[in-house]
Amino acid sequence: MQVVADTNDEHRSRELWKLVEGQHGVVSRTQLLARGYSAAAIAHRLAVGRLHPVQRGIYAVGRPELSRHGVWVAAAMSCGTEAVVSHDSAAQLWGIREARGRVEVTVPLHVRRRRPGMAIYQRTLPASERAAHEDVPVTTVHRTLLDLAARLSRGQLEAAINAADKLDLTNPERLRAALDDFAGRPGVKTLRRVLDRRTFTFTASELERWFLPLAHAAGLPRPLTSRQVNGFEVDYWPDLGLVVETDGLRYHRTPAAQTRDRLRDQTHARAGLTPLRFTHEQIRYEPSRVRATLSDVARRLGR
Prior knowledge:
The protein is of the alpha+beta class. The chain has helices spanning 2-21, 29-34, 39-47, 68-77, 87-94, 141-149, 154-166, 172-178, 188-198, 204-217, 255-270, 280-285, 287-302, and strands at 26-28, 51-55, 58-61, 84-85, 103-107, 118-122, 130-133, 136-139, 224-229, 232-237, 242-247, 274-279.
């Protein structure tokens, strides 16, 4: 009988450790009870330091220190089975933004929770907005970006979108399409505006209508437009030795595209020309910066 009891204890212990490893060192009281650990057994493990309280009914196993992932798991578990890490905490988990401060968790509307060191939001999320990343329950990348849109500046939001794209978590097209499912919710309009700016492109005729007045306002004469110089199509001021190229790919460029850009600029520089490159987004939304750059460069070249 003792051998059977010892075998059962060993099996139960192995199963518990497997569970704990998958939860970043965390276990709940409910899980312990479901696996045959009595209230007295739990109290004994707390007394001897084999369990350490983290949140109400949530314990760190073996040692009190938890990894960041363990903290997130403990926070979500303490708020119920449907709770997920969200907002800035979710952004940090996905790797698209650094976050400090309280752990942020979203729970269904019917759940009432107050936890020290946590910010808890009530919103019932459909399954399509919930995910698991690195064994942590979390809002999806699109839901996370939507939550961030309501609190970040445009630059910060652009940085988060850019990071998500570089990590292949989403891209502007997928994110824009996903916004149709979030219609009417806070943050949608902000995300649409940012995405439109980041992917904005002119047609050739539209670009000329917007760019040439900026060059004129900067004190430059009319350039030779859409000319082939050193094998590349540019706007060209031969008297100044200035070539300007415009780039419709506002979003982050691939390594191959970046290499081609450097080659183009180096080719012009080797020929004794001064290359400038502006994005369509800059021409449309930051005309004063474009105008000032043209003016300063033209003044230097004129001297």
